[in-house]
Write a structure and sequence with these properties.
5-stranded antiparallel β-sheet; 9 helices; 31 strands; 35% strand
Length: 572
């Protein structure tokens, strides 16, 4: 029993340091986190909202100190719960505290950091807004809608924030809201329907709230239809009664949607409140070497636009530099402020010569909807010093040895050259054999595939209905226009026109002009053709404008033909 103890004490100091470091890392990784979140960051005065505190350990009888909240908020309720989940055999426990708060003043108020068991949350800023005059005018009613839209001018394809609140003094049963649909607009819901309470002039109301982002696809008058709330009011004195039906309808809203301004440049249309651009490189130290690829990522962000609305960035041609584009990644984030889109465009860049390399400035035009003017997101130019490719140590050593030997013994050099020639002939023979073997292998593979195909011939697929294919082609054309992908626009537009106008035998863009005598459409088609075959790859094309013109052509065709079946425009 004595020997093992001596062996443990005689262990080297490095072993003890390693053990101590491992225990320290384990304790750090096991440290519990405390996080905070709210169900709404924009609330009305005297509204209630919920602050959720989550601690990633199980707690039974303790809770965080909430006294820091009492300075600016009323703590109305607190519920504690424990959750358990298991993912791939790993068990996790969470303790949640759901705290119902009500602000004591209006304006920007900060929920301070909450501390518990050595952990701390991040502060959260809440925007507390006063009760609107339109709500105060309706306080005498038991049930009413209050609807608001974002301020400022509205442009085609720009974002409209729609907020709908339904107030009630008596809690209804079987409550439901109508589906939110807007003609000639794309609609995206921002979060789930929220339910909370508020007090206005001493009267308590329950509130259902929901938000949407609306993107008009055409200029002119956009009508947001009135919304309907349905439910039943039960009779507390008659438990057998089904209750009194309740139906409340809001007023429609008309919005003037402005077209693309004439002064906007011939570039993808980006109506936004803020657009930014930045870039990153796989080698942040910018150690560029001839022939070695570097990954360049350009990130474009826009407020009030979805990720699919952001077009690919046209890169200028740079001498002594080759581009190898990767697939672009479109994404977006959704919150109470609306939709924020992001495009990450990555590519491998390979310098082909040493020396100074200049990456030109990139300017992306966008329309500032607040200031109503064209602005530019600018990626400044960048100068790179490209190093020449270096020889490997082995090849340099071999070259040095060969030079020294040749200088000391010229006769040996001649003999060595003869020997090298023999090796070269032998190497060629080996490659002939290898090539023959590869050829035989390929022939056998082709023969095997031929046998498999004839034993199990592929069954012919059934063609889909032409109407469905037409709808799919139109959808593809719309998506290509929004992404501003010129090649896909051309392919999808011709595919749709073939199905939509089968008697016109359309196979190229110039043939589409026979469908309409609209000069703007002709000019847009010519512009697309010029962009596709232009030598200058930095040119841009406005797909949104072409989509609007084709839609206008379709509307005119529907008005002219007078029947559901489409006739050729010129009787061809």
């Amino acid at each position: 029993m004595v020997t093992p103890v001596k062996r443990i004490h005689n262990l080297p100091i490095q072993w003890w340091l390693t053990l101590l470091f491992g225990l320290l890392i384990a304790n750090i990784s096991m440290a519990a986190d405390l996080t905070a979140s709210v169900d709404r960051k924009v609330v009305g005065e005297n509204d209630t909202f919920t602050l959720l505190l989550r601690y990633n350990e199980q707690v039974s009888f303790r809770s965080p100190d909430l006294s820091p909240l009492e300075k600016d908020f009323r703590v109305l309720n607190k519920k504690q719960s424990t959750q358990f989940r298991s993912i791939n055999g790993n068990s996790e426990y969470f303790t949640d505290w759901a705290i119902v708060l009500s602000p004591q003043k209006t304006g920007k108020i900060t929920i301070p950091a909450i501390r518990f068991n050595g952990a701390s949350t991040q502060p959260i800023v809440i925007d507390v807004q006063p009760v609107s005059a339109s709500v105060k005018e309706k306080l005498a009613k038991e049930f009413f809608f209050d609807i608001s839209i974002s301020e400022g001018p509205v442009y085609v394809q720009g974002q409209i924030l729609y907020t709908e609140k339904f107030y009630y003094t008596t809690s209804p049963e079987g409550a439901s809201l109508s589906d939110f649909k807007v003609t000639d607009a794309r609609v995206q819901q921002l979060g789930e329907v929220r339910s909370y309470q508020t007090i206005i002039e001493g009267q308590r109301f329950g509130v259902f709230e929901r938000q949407f982002a609306v993107f008009p696809e055409e200029s002119g008058t956009l009508v947001i239809p009135g919304q309907r709330f349905s439910g039943r009011i039960s009779n507390p004195y008659d438990r057998w009664s089904r209750g009194q039906p309740l139906s409340v309808v809001s007023k429609p809203i008309e919005i003037n949607v402005l077209p693309i301004p004439a002064e906007y440049p011939q570039s993808p249309w980006l109506p936004s409140t803020k657009v930014s651009i930045r870039e990153s490189f796989s080698d942040n130290n910018q150690n560029w070497t001839v022939g070695e690829p570097i990954t360049r990522s350009i990130i474009l962000k826009a407020q009030g636009l979805s990720g699919s609305q952001l077009p690919a960035i046209a890169l200028p041609v740079v001498d002594k530099l080759r581009y190898y584009p990767d697939q672009s990644n479109h994404s977006e984030t959704v919150n109470e402020a609306g939709i924020n889109g992001e495009l990450e465009q990555s590519m491998a860049v390979v310098p082909t010569a040493a020396g100074r390399l200049v990456l030109p400035e990139i300017r992306v035009p966008w329309w500032n909807t607040r200031l109503q003017k064209t602005e530019y997101a600018v990626l400044p130019s960048r100068t790179i010093e490209v190093q020449a490719a270096t020889q490997t140590a082995d090849s340099a050593a071999i070259g040095s040895t060969a030079t020294d030997t040749a200088a000391s013994n010229p006769g040996h050099t001649q003999q060595q050259s003869s020997s090298s020639l023999t090796l070269s002939h032998n190497g060629q023979g080996i490659w002939v054999i290898v090539s023959a073997l590869l050829l035989i292998t390929n022939l056998l593979s082709v023969f095997w595939l031929w046998r498999v195909y004839h034993r199990n011939p592929a069954k012919p697929t059934q063609k889909p209905d032409s109407h469905l294919r037409e709808k799919d082609s139109w959808k593809a054309f719309q998506q290509a226009c929004r992404a501003n992908n010129a090649n896909t626009i051309r392919t999808s537009l011709i595919a749709w026109a073939k199905l939509r106008y089968p008697d016109n035998h359309i196979n190229q863009l110039t043939q589409l002009k026979q469908l309409s005598n609209e000069p703007k459409l002709h000019a847009a088609l010519d512009e697309l053709n010029a962009h596709l075959y232009a030598a200058d790859t930095s040119s841009a094309f406005n797909g949104g404008n072409l989509l609007a013109l084709v839609k206008n052509m379709e509307s005119q065709q529907k008005n002219n033909r007078g029947s559901s079946e489409l006739k050729p425009l010129y009787g061809t």
